[in-house]
Amino acid sequence: MSDRNERAASRRVLVVGAGPVGLSLAIELGWRGVPVTVIDQGDGQVPFPAGEAIFSRTMEHLRRWGCAEEARAESAPPTDYPHRTVFATSVTGHVLAEFDFGVTNQSPGAYGPLTPEGPAFLSKFSFLPLLERTARSLPSVEIRFGTRLESFDQDSDGVLAVVRDLESGDSETLAGAYLVACDGGRSSVRRALGIEFEGMFAQGQNFAVHFRAPQLLDLLREHLGGQAVQIHTLSSARRPYITVVNGVDEWRLSVYLDEEPEPGDAVAWVHEAVGAPIDVEILAAQPWSGHCVVARRYRAGRVFLAGDSAHLLWPKGGFGANTGIGDAVDLGWKLAAVLQGWGGQALLDSYEMERRPIAVRNVTEASGNWKSDSQLEPDAVLARADAEGDRARSEMGEMIRRARGREFLCTGVQLGYRYSDSPICLADGTPEPPDEPDDYVPSTWPGCRAPHAWLPDGSSVLDHFGRGFVLVVSGSADPSSLVEAAQQRGLPLTVLRLTDPAAARLYERPFVLVRPDGHVGWRGGQAPGDPAAVLDRLRGAEAGSPAAEAGNPAAGSVMVTQAVAANVGTRQL
Predict the structure, then answer these.
(1) DSSP string, 168-217
(2) What are the backbone angles phi and psi of residue 186, rounded to the nearest 5°?
(3) pLDDT 10s digits, 141-151
(4) Which of 39, 62, 165, 511 is the most exposed place for a label (fewest CB within 10 A)?
(5) Which pLDDT score is estimated for 572?
């Protein structure tokens, strides 16, 4: 290997799996200039539609990567399709309850004051190709489909992965500084590392059907008051529910099962959910299980777990891919910081400390949503066209709104997660804000997502985060001591001065130091007495920090010989 190739390999990250999490990690690293090779044994095609709910926080990441507008413009279902969820006896029956907060793929609705990017509902058929295009547009990203990981070894110098081209049968060895497993719930990497899941497996057996039904959209307009992204029915104990795929004629149906399906069941289930024998073409079908599990560890030396390889959960609330993309963003900036020389090794240990509690929180919430849904039982009285039927439907509607509402306006899950016990955030002694799944109150409490506010130039505060640290300053606060300490350490730091009084009030303190991932690392009413110590803690270089003391033998001996130059600037908005 030439010296040039050896230097490239020493900075390269190997990613196993080109699903939404692996591609997001490739984008995050490539956006930061880190060389990435993604391998996936598939052909890049999407075999089955799933994971349509894209959270506001994920859309904020897409905004930073420069592809949020394209995601909305080319979305399936279309941009004006309402994010309306309906509970009904059947599609042609009675509406029991609905959840509609004015959100479409082009309108943030109820999320508007909280974020520059409302949530989106994007079919995997449009979302994954978008991520792939975005990743391939970055010069340092390489994606190799039809390539299977055969084995890997790691030592203090890096990772060697033996991969096989499935078309030619040829094997080769790829070298990298780190390897990240984004290869799903059956992760071969996780199994090779001997890392087990903890929690409850297969809480329920289910079946999903991708189908075409041109009549269905008209039936929604005729019987359920218009378009909807999901229709949950109480037509049988199977509780069939339908999810939009393209907004025209393709849909996905899911059912709870207690027995093995028989040939012809899929069409019968669709008819059951619709309440009429409409024309149906079955495109694909597959079983699936709901889980509530999290990996015991997220790291073994130079190898990390992210996405479904680290956590599996019920698809009740759309938490799965969004939690995994959050993993990718958190790990991505930390790997870049270490590889570029300005981050300390404690950054990498903080990945598990920050992201595992979020996974536990989200898999628990998703499992709770499933349990709430399982309490809704069909009753023949619901279909009756008399006073008794009216009474039963009213009572069931109230139960649905009480038991199921938090799943469909989960602003707290989307925007309110925080890294409460992070070793690279500095607590200020104030109480932690409430963490409610269905409510979000903006806060600059250390560990929280820094709040969104529109600035006089039309940008969001969030548009100024990402490349390095940002010191948000308001009033007459003097940032010079932190700027000088950053320059001395080669730490990328930009100063953003808030002149808008409302934005300054939202940020609560004259000094708020925001990390590259947009989370608050430190805040204060005045400049810190030891600015160098604050910056060292946030960049994972403080010798006494909990993450540094935890150590990691394989990573601890990495020698970073070249540091990036400091990027210190000031903007006033």
Answers:
(1) T--EEEEEESEEEE---TT-HHHHHHTPPEEEEEEEEEEEEEEEE-TTHH
(2) -100, 30
(3) 999 999 999 99
(4) 165
(5) 53
